[in-house]
């Protein structure tokens, strides 16, 4: 198994859940980009400070990092030996976002920075619904030529099989 794993995909695709499962089975340290980026009260960390935090994590010999933040994807790709891309239906992702918001509204999720309670707005929901059309092509362009192992998972059953350790030859792009 890889020693440096990125888990990326649309919000609501299950990145944090997959990353936690991988961390539990591999023993790799887990880092959530949301925790590195956000400060209490949903205050953005200045870009130089965020990049410094990320550089500290990517310099470690072993890790799992979950999250998108496309502006830093090239840096993370340069250090990763595996990328797990979750490409679920935009409607499934949006439903999961709404369900997550309803269940955790006003609370801080385990994968979120302290002081950043769950929230939802129309702009974020639109981003989730349009992720495949707008954001995914940019992600694919950054993945072009990636020399490591790329695991592209498009259905919950594929995710379950991957997490159970089954080889997904048709889903792995090298």
Helix content: 40-55%
| Order of SSEs | EHEHEEHEHEHHHHEHE
Order of adjacent strands in the largest pleated sheet: 2-5-1-6-7-8
Termini Cα gap: 14 Å
CATH topology tier name: Rossmann fold
Mean pLDDT: 94
**CATH class label:** Alpha Beta
The helix count comes to 9
Instruction: Assign the CATH superfamily.
Output: P-loop containing nucleotide triphosphate hydrolases
**Gross geometry:** globular
Q: What are the segments in which pLDDT stays under 50 over at least 5 consecutive residues?
A: 170-174
What does this structure look like?
The strands form two sheets. The chain has a six-stranded mixed beta sheet, with helices on both faces. A two-stranded antiparallel sheet has the order 3-4. It has one domain (4-173): 3-Layer(aba) Sandwich (Rossmann fold), CATH 3.40.50.300. The radius of gyration is 15 Å and the shape is globular. The chain has helices at residues 15-26, 33-37, 47-58, 73-79, 90-104, 122-129, 131-134, 136-143, 156-163, and strands spanning 4-9, 30-32, 38-39, 43-44, 63-66, 82-86, 149-153, 172-173. It is 45% helix and 17% strand.
Question: Nutshell version of this structure?
Answer:
The chain is an alpha/beta fold and 174 residues long. The chain has helices at residues 15-26, 33-37, 47-58, 73-79, 90-104, 122-129, 131-134, 136-143, 156-163; strands at residues 4-9, 30-32, 38-39, 43-44, 63-66, 82-86, 149-153, 172-173. The chain has one domain: P-loop containing nucleotide triphosphate hydrolases (Rossmann fold, 3-Layer(aba) Sandwich), CATH 3.40.50.
């Amino acid at each position: 198994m890889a020693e440096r794993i990125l888990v990326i995909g649309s919000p609501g695709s299950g990145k944090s859940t997959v990353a936690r499962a991988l961390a539990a089975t591999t023993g790799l340290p887990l880092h959530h980009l949301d925790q590195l980026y956000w400060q209490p009260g949903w205050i953005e960390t200045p870009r130089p400070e965020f990049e410094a935090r990320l550089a500290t994590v990517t310099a470690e010999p072993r890790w799992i990092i979950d999250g998108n933040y496309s502006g830093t994807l090239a840096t993370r790709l340069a250090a990763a030996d595996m990328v797990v891309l979750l490409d679920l239906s935009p409607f499934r992702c949006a439903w999961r976002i709404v369900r997550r918001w309803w269940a955790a509204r006003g609370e801080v999720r385990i994968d979120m920075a302290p002081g950043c309670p769950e929230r939802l707005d129309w702009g974020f929901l639109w981003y989730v619904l349009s992720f495949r059309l707008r954001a995914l092509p940019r992600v694919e362009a950054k993945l072009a030529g990636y020399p490591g192992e790329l695991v592209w998972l498009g259905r919950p059953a594929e995710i379950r099989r991957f997490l159970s350790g089954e080889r997904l030859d048709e889903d792995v792009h090298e």
